[in-house]
Amino acid sequence: MIIAKNYIPRRFPPPWTAEETDACFIVRDANGPALAYVLPEDFTMLKTVPIVDPSLIIEANNAVSKRGGKGDATVTMVIHFNGRLDPETLIAIDFRMVALANTVKIPQQNPWIISIKGKKYKLVGEAMFRAAAITPLSFDPTKPVRALKFDIDLLMQNALAESSVDGRA
Questions:
Q1: Can you give the pLDDT at residue 47?
Q2: Residue 51 structural domain
Q3: Domains identified in the chain, total number
Q4: What does pTM read for this prediction?
Q5: CA contacts within 13 A on the Cβ side of 6
Q6: What ranges make up the beta strands (E) of the chain?
Q7: What letter does residue 53 receive in the DSSP assignment?
Q8: Is pLDDT above 60 for 122?
């Protein structure tokens, strides 16, 4: 048997299987880890996204941040939470992270978001992540998921409620 000098074993060994759930199809490799969560073509999305535990939004952001902007954020998050969360929760976290990212892009004065001169990224206060986890999020199923945004006034109200006071007056 001849083995190529640069042979790299497959990272996701076959055979792959597809498991159908109420929310999506889960594609798994031979070892069992979920490789993808796939929505069927005729999938009718819910009009509201369930709230999630704020610590999950923060954990998802930390997992994505560790990659330094490399790779797909959704794939990174799915790999990070693999086997720990159900597909519905993963989708809710992803949708909420997308909506927060789109909301942060809106040019405005916001005490929980800090732009850094010369940098592409922004610093977002923890209160914003906590608010993103609990603020009602609805969307139009005729528009792409990547266009999701929070109602900015409601998000700001929740961020204020989720913020803590530092120091004493």
A1: 62
A2: 47-162
A3: 1
A4: 0.64
A5: 0
A6: 17-20, 25-28, 34-38, 48-49, 113-115, 122-124, 137-138
A7: -
A8: no
